[in-house]
Write a structure and sequence with these properties.
By secondary structure, the protein is an alpha+beta fold. About 55% of the residues lie in helices and about 10% in strands.
Length: about 850
């Protein structure tokens, strides 16, 4: 079984000729079965042999990122060709450098031309709008003022307070340009304050324009500000610079204005033609990049990864041979040797790579062969910790126990079916959905088979609970119970038993064939019965799950030949757990099987109690408080007092059994020079504390550790058993939430909308539709999302804490082979 234990690993040494080193690493990266060990940990990245090549790859990576940004900006990114293996690294570097220089030049020319065009467009708007300002002023001025004014003095008529008899006239100047709309108000206010009101501003909106400085679209206004004096002009110019207002010359003569408009229009036409030609050239360059970008990224990714691995190899003094060490699965050794032979032939090296096995200095990495189904469950286990090399893997049983415990808390036929549809959707369309780039969905998609198993088990437990959206089902026939009415009468129709008690079973019939009898739904004692059943069921499942964990520990101890831990840990642990809580689980099952007619009057005669009604709470309390005696009300079988006394004695003996023998035996072995050193024993074993591996033997340390281990197990047996009651709590919460949503949301609206006198109206249909919509949203949002996540987390805790801590060390490290398949373009 591939998952039961990790693959056996072999440490190898590779002696690679320098001329074949690159091709050798590439061949090993193709097969992806070798994990290299860094032999240069004492060197920084800049002191490594191939640091120069890595820098070259980093520079080429920067260029490729720049190319990718430019291509994505234009929306030209395409899949392109595969990995470019024919072009050498030097040729690729020269090609990328040339393309970068060409693209930068094209971009610079394009930006400069666009800037010139934007400036000309703004100048054109200034000429157009400012010209209208002056034309409106000329049309509005009085004819006698025009005759009195000088022909060249265009500013005098614009002054509202101009007087005909004024002897001294100050010449008024003006400045025109464009300013952003959002800055116009502050711009005008500052102009007014700076000039103390000695200015006049005229502006007009021109819409969105490309700003020459930033290249962004900005809402702008054309303005003309009139002033008097050169000092005021200097102030206005500085204010324009502060607010990013672009100023442009505006001639006073009308003829000169028309000439400038003509020149600007012609220059704009020429610039448009030049820009179109430049854009065609830039588009051709970007198309070339888009067609080859994928291949270049793949090639550079491979080269960069190859040089990083080559930097892990040590170089001999002659620099002719590279020595490397690596971990390889034993089953893959022949494939690795074939890859080395292929690399030697491709590189035309005179000598081949030498591969020789080594004795490992440290623990090997852990490697499990997984598939699409088991990968999700293996990820759940490894989220707690990677398995120690060759120890038992919990995911073998987690594939079944995890979805089953989830389903115990989430059991509902309808909810399980909805989850099954979602899981089947992801499984059937896994090829298309596997390409979705979203972290949350990738996590969900990776566990699609986990969700599939959880949905199947939820459907199964829903059949056991006989619930579908909180409604009872009758797939296996009608009920075997009758409903008790007043006195000794019974109701003929079991559906009339809402709110009454079920106390009589039809004589001569068998119990309900599968799962819970549907008649319990809606009765007075429904919660009493289902709570008792589910609570006891949780205890039974918990004890079985913990027993499985302890049994798995013996497989580790046998494999690592740790006989001392088998006799001094496994045996007392299994005895202690089952003498107390295993006995409780036995009594639960025995009581279920003892008397199916426990509700009938006691046929044993007066003065006696039916054994089917024994109170297990009192039995467990009296087991410790009154050993050797059994209350008649709690007697289940003959000789119960003697059995309980033996079990209690076994439980008390198991505690010092776990505590004392192992440290004493280890001390004895240390004194006699016969120390046992298991190769992979559990925590607290002789190798860890016997001094055979590290330092001298310390009996005090071993004793303290064993004491902690014993106390942890004894207290953990109690707390872990109680922890499994979360199965009961979660399934009760899920069931009651389903009932609330069904009765208080859906059925309440249906009852309010149903009026036999009025019949089915538009209003009642609308009410039912709204009620069903609220019910559906509550079911999906609360039960299918929040409740499923809660059950998932609780099942995760039960496996990590209550199950895996019985045997799982989780202190290994994962086998991560050097493989090109593990790299993507995002790794550049």
């Amino acid at each position: 079984m591939d998952l039961w234990r990790s693959e056996p690993m072999q440490r190898i040494r590779l002696m690679v000729p320098a001329e074949a080193a690159h091709e050798t690493i590439v061949s090993l990266g193709e097969i992806g079965l070798v994990q290299f060990v860094d032999l240069n940990t004492n060197r920084s990245a800049f002191q490594r042999t191939y640091a120069t090549e890595v820098k070259r790859c980093d520079e080429m990576t920067r260029r490729l990122r720049f190319f990718k940004e430019q291509v994505e900006k234009e929306g030209l990114l395409k899949d392109g060709i595969g990995v470019d293996k024919d072009t050498s690294l030097d040729e690729l570097e020269a090609r990328l450098e040339e393309l970068e220089r060409e693209l930068l030049e094209v971009n610079a020319n394009s930006d400069r031309l666009q800037q010139n065009r934007s400036e000309l467009v703004e100048l054109q708007l200034v000429l157009e709008k400012a010209g209208k300002f002056f034309e409106e002023a000329r049309d509005a001025v009085q004819p006698e003022i025009l005759e009195a004014a000088s022909p060249l003095d265009l500013s005098a008529p614009l002054l509202e307070n101009a007087q005909l008899g004024q002897q001294k006239v100050t010449k008024v100047g003006f400045l025109s340009g464009l300013v952003a709309k959002e800055k116009l108000e502050n711009f005008e206010r500052l102009l007014f304050r700076a000039t103390r009101g000695n200015m006049f501003l005229k502006h007009c909106e021109v819409g969105s324009l490309r700003d020459p400085a930033t290249g962004e679209q900005v809402e702008k206004h054309v303005f003309v500000v009139f002033y008097a004096g050169e000092r005021v002009r200097t102030k206005i110019t500085k204010i324009c610079e502060v607010y990013g207002a672009n100023t442009y010359p505006f001639p006073e003569e009308a003829a000169r204005q028309r000439q400038m408009v003509s020149e600007v229009t012609m220059r704009l036409r020429e610039l448009s033609t030049t820009i179109e030609a430049g854009e065609r050239l830039r588009f051709e360059v970007l198309n070339t990049l888009a067609a080859n970008l994928t291949g270049w990224c793949g090639r550079l990714m491979r080269e960069k990864a190859t040089f990083h691995v080559m930097n892990k190899l040590s170089v001999d003094s002659s620099r002719k041979v590279l020595v490397g060490e690596a971990w390889v699965p034993v089953d893959a050794l022949e494939e690795v040797k074939d890859a080395l032979v292929t690399a030697t032939e491709v590189s035309s090296a005179q000598t081949g790579t030498i591969l020789e096995p080594m004795h490992p200095e440290g623990p090997p990495p852990t490697y499990f062969k997984t598939n699409k189904f088991t990968e999700g469950f293996q990820s759940i286990v490894e989220a707690y910790g990677v398995a120690r090399y060759r120890e038992v893997n919990p995911s073998v049983f987690t594939c079944v126990t995890f979805p089953f415990l989830f389903a115990v808390m989430f059991g509902d036929l309808g909810h399980g079916f909805l989850m099954l549809l979602f899981a089947l959707f992801m499984v059937i369309r896994e090829k298309a959905l596997g390409k979705v780039q979203n972290d949350m969905f990738e996590m969900l998609f990776g566990g699609r088979y986990v969700i599939l198993m959880m949905s199947i088990f939820s459907i199964y437990t829903g059949l056991v609970y006989n619930e579908a959206f909180s409604m009872p089902t009758s797939f296996f026939g009608g009920t075997k119970w009758v409903c008790q009415a007043e006195g000794n009468e019974t109701l003929p129709d079991i559906r009339l038993c809402q709110g009454r008690s079920l106390s009589l079973l039809v004589d001569g019939t068998d119990p309900y064939p599968f799962g819970l009898d549907p008649v319990w739904h809606g009765t007075k004692n429904e919660l009493t019965f289902t709570n008792s059943m589910k609570m006891k069921m949780s205890v039974v499942f918990g004890v079985l799950h913990m027993d499985l964990g302890i049994i798995m520990s013996v497989f580790n101890q046998q494999y690592f030949r740790d006989q001392l831990s088998i006799w001094c840990e496994f045996v007392p642990q299994i005895l202690f757990l089952n003498s107390v809580f295993g006995y409780l689980a036995f009594m639960i099952v025995y009581k279920w099987c003892l008397n199916s007619h426990f509700a009938l009057p006691n046929p044993s005669g007066p003065g006696t109690v039916n054994r089917g009604t024994a109170d297990l709470y009192n039995v467990m309390i009296n087991l410790f408080l009154s050993p050797g005696t059994v209350d008649p009300a709690g007697e289940l079988y003959d000789g119960q007092a003697r059995v309980q006394s033996i079990l209690l004695l076994v439980a008390f003996v198991a505690i010092p059994w776990m505590l004392l023998p192992k440290p004493l035996i280890l001390r004895s072995r240390n004194r006699n020079g016969r120390q046992e050193q298991p190769s992979g024993e559990d925590s607290g074993t002789g190798a860890a504390h016997g001094g055979a591996k590290e330092g001298a033997f310390s009996f005090g340390d071993v004793m303290v550790h064993q004491m902690i281990h014993t106390i942890e197990f004894v207290l953990g047996a109690v707390s872990n058993t109680a922890s499994y009651l979360r199965l009961w709590a979660l399934t009760l919460a899920h069931s009651q939430l389903s009932v609330v949503f069904y009765d208080r949301v859906l059925m309440l609206v249906v009852e309010l909308a149903s009026d036999p006198a009025a019949g089915l109206t538009v209003r009642s249909v609308l009410q039912i539709f709204i009620g069903f919509f609220v019910f559906a949203m509550a079911t999906l949002g609360v039960l299918m999302v929040m409740e499923s996540l809660s059950a998932f987390l609780h099942a995760l805790r039960l496996h990590w804490v209550e199950f895996q801590n019985k045997f799982y060390n989780g202190d290994g490290y994962k086998f991560i082979p050097f493989s090109f398949a593990n790299f993507t373009k995002d790794d550049l």
